[in-house]
Every structure is written in C-alpha cells, then in structure tokens.
Amino acid sequence: MHSPSQLSAAPATGRDAFWMPFTANRRFKSVSQPLFVEADGMYYVRDDGKRVLDGIAGLWCVNAGHRRTEIVDAIAHAAYRLDYASSFQMGHPLAFEYAEALLDTAPAGFGQVFFSNSGSEAVDTALKIALAYHRARGEGQRVRLIGRERSYHGVGFGGLSVAGIGGQRKAFGNLLPFVDHLPSTYDRSQMAFSRGQPAWGAHLAEDLVRRIALHDPSTIAAVIVEPIAGSTGVLVPPVGYLERLREICDAHGILLIFDEVISGFGRVGDTFAATRLNVTPDLITSAKGLTNGAVPMGATFVRAPVYEALMQGSIDSIEFSHGYTYSGHPLACAAGLAALQIYRRENLFERARGLEAHWEKAAHELASRRGVLDIRNFGLLAAIDLAPWPGAPGKRGYDAHRRCLEAGVLIRAAGDTMLLSPPLIVTPEQIDTLFATLADALDANADGASA
Ligand SMILES: Cc1ncc(COP(=O)(O)O)c(C=O)c1O
C-alpha cells in the first residue's frame, strides 16, 4: 500500500478534478487505480480488461444485475419521447403509472408515493412529511425526531441529524435541533455470529419509552430506523424489537419511518423488510433497487391517513411545500417500471430468499479465519467484522478490499467491516467465489505485514 509521503503527493493520475464522494481522494488518486468501464450481469469490466465479480450490486442497488437490456431500452425510449417534464403543477403519464405500480408492491394501507432522486432525499422527504403531518393535525409542537445510533440515513441535513455515525457528523456542527437517538441494537458480547435475527435485544426498544418520558410524547413527531441497518454493518434487528417499536409509537401517536433504502426491493427476500418481518411502518423510504441503479431515484411511501391529513385547506393551495425539479423524472420512472417487470418475471425476490441458506452457510464458514470478530447475515446481506490492525483502524478492511479486487471480486469495506450484497441473480457458485476470495485475502495478510 502507500507510505505517508505518497499520500501527500500531488495526484499523479490526472484525476484531480473529480472530488470523489466518501473516498480517500488523495490515496485513490495517488496511484493509477483501475476504473470500471463496462458492466454486464454479475460482472464489471475494468479499463485493463479484467472482469470483476460484483459482490455488492454496485452499491447495494443493481439488484437484477448489470446492464439489463429491457431497462436500457425503456430509458432510451422514454428519452426519445419525452426527455423531461416537471411534476410541479403539471405532469406526465409515467410518474402516475410508476407510482401505481409501486403501491402494488407496498404493504396494505399505503396510498401514495413521493418521488425524489436519492435515498438522502427520500429520507428528508419522509422527515418533512412527518413534521407537516402533525402540524396539519394541530399538533405542530411535535417537532422532535428520534433516530438511532449506528444508523445511516444519507447526507442531507435531516438524514444526517437523525443518523447515528459520529464520524460523519462531526465536521458539520450541530445539525437539526430537537433530535434524539435510541441505542444501537448491536452488542457483540451478546449476539456475535448470530444467523439472521439475534435472539437477544428486544428489550432495547424500551429505550424509546425512556426518551418519550424524558421529552414528553406530545413533542415527538417520528421515530426513524433502518429495519435492517445496511451500510453500518448489516445490523439485524433482534427478534421482537421492531414489533415493540411499533407498539410504543402507536401508543403515543408517533409516526414510525422505516428507511428501506437498502433493504427494499428484494435485498431481504421480499419487497421490503416491513413485509418480510411483518411490521408495518407509517412511511417507507426507498431508493436503491428502484431503477436497478440505472437512473437516480428515491421514493417515499406514505400510508393513506398521513397523506389525507395533509390534504386540507383551499383546493388551490399547495398542501406540501416540497419537491425536486427531477421528482418523477420520465427516465427514472421508465427505468423503474422496467426494473419492476424484471423483478416480477424472474421472481428475483423469491430467488433471493431461496439462496439465503447457502449464503448464510458460506458467510459463516469464514468464522474460523484469523481476526474475524463477528459475521452477520440476513437476506442476501452479510457483514464480517475484522479486528483492526493496531493503530491503523480501517486499514485492514481496505487491504482486504484491494486484494479481492485484484483477485477479481468486488467487496466493500466500511472501516474494518467487509460488506457483501450481490445482485439477486447471483448463483450459488458465485456466492462461494465471493466468500472464498475474501477468505484468501484475509489469510494473505492476517497480521498486516504485507500491507
Ligand atoms: C439506509 C439508507 N438511507 C439513506 C441512504 C442514502 O442514499 P443516497 O446515497 O442515495 O442518498 C443510504 C445509502 O446508502 C442508506 O443505506
């Protein structure tokens, strides 16, 4: 890897203009890293011609595999016909058609979909709907939002405020006021190497009762959680935890928001974690998987009574002052409709569920590798925590990521946690390849000597 002097050197690669998101820019640009130039099915192709098996569905989003012709054609067709039309006080058919089609996939009782362009926007939209809902009902004092430690809700000021990752917040000051956090549901001492939902931890939901007592329920608008936390390490909810959150919210008139940006659209063997786990929130945020990654899109699903509460005042008034220039963009809707058709026709969500047992077994076979602290899985999600090398947090994960990439497999590292979430078209043999390659990468440099 690189010495500190290399890291401070001016980029040698002519790639300085693009300020890369969530990237160690100087490290990345200090050497000529391979770039992805093509993709097909389960594979990327690098600019040096090497094929790379995609173990993370792009970034948890290419659920039907790469470059699906049907989606490409639908985007092209839409672009040729109607490149853009606003949804502010006007409209185009694809947005209405897509919203209807999406509602068919939602749990019973959901009546509307609000379109945005990303998970972050879907989350901020949900938080604003929650606040506006209470105000419309004459409870404008409900301004408090409750998130959870170790949750990720995107990068907007709203999502960042309710999220629970200190390192991502510290550069940005105080963020939103009136925000509190539940404790994380993860405790390695109690649940290491659980398979699926841990048995321990339902009682952690009781912390919400304490927050409510502290702040008074009349001040709390919404609780937002990822039903299964994805990017912070596949933190699977303890058995009974989400059910208890639902009960507590119901008892106090608090809206429950599930951020399903990762867990939506097949990743957990069902359309949503809500349907899989049988707990129905009031709002669901989604993004990844909607268009199979082909066009940016976010969607916030809303239960009918929430929408109805906001449909007040003069018929000429804008009931909810919110929206994006590209809300319901024709290309995104076309891609989303085509993606839904593929998901249905190929039964990809059921397929994912059918692969779960194989996935779980393959993941947990890494338990005996040196330095593996924990393995978690749910649906086609897995996380493997590695013991950090002394004095160098994150370096071991990055080293494993690079070694896998050189061996032709893309696996994500979040610090020293390895994250896997392949397209749902993955075969059992490819699953074995993903975990075997990771195992080899871990063995090759277990103590960091060759980093
Ligand atoms: C649960 C969750 N919410 C929100 C987001 C933000 O999505 P985006 O990066 O599309 O803004 C993410 C992204 O990983 C996510 O995992």
UniProtKB/TrEMBL annotation:
Transmembrane segments: none annotated. Its cofactor is pyridoxal 5'-phosphate. InterPro entries: Aminotrans_3, Aminotrans_3_PPA_site, PyrdxlP-dep_Trfase, PyrdxlP-dep_Trfase_major, PyrdxlP-dep_Trfase_small. Keywords: Aminotransferase, Pyridoxal phosphate, Transferase. The keyword Transferase applies. The keyword RNA-binding does not apply. PROSITE patterns: AA_TRANSFER_CLASS_3. Pfam families: Aminotran_3. Belongs to the class-III pyridoxal-phosphate-dependent aminotransferase family. This is Beta-alanine--pyruvate transaminase. It comes from Paraburkholderia unamae. The lineage of its organism: Bacteria, Pseudomonadati, Pseudomonadota, Betaproteobacteria, Burkholderiales.
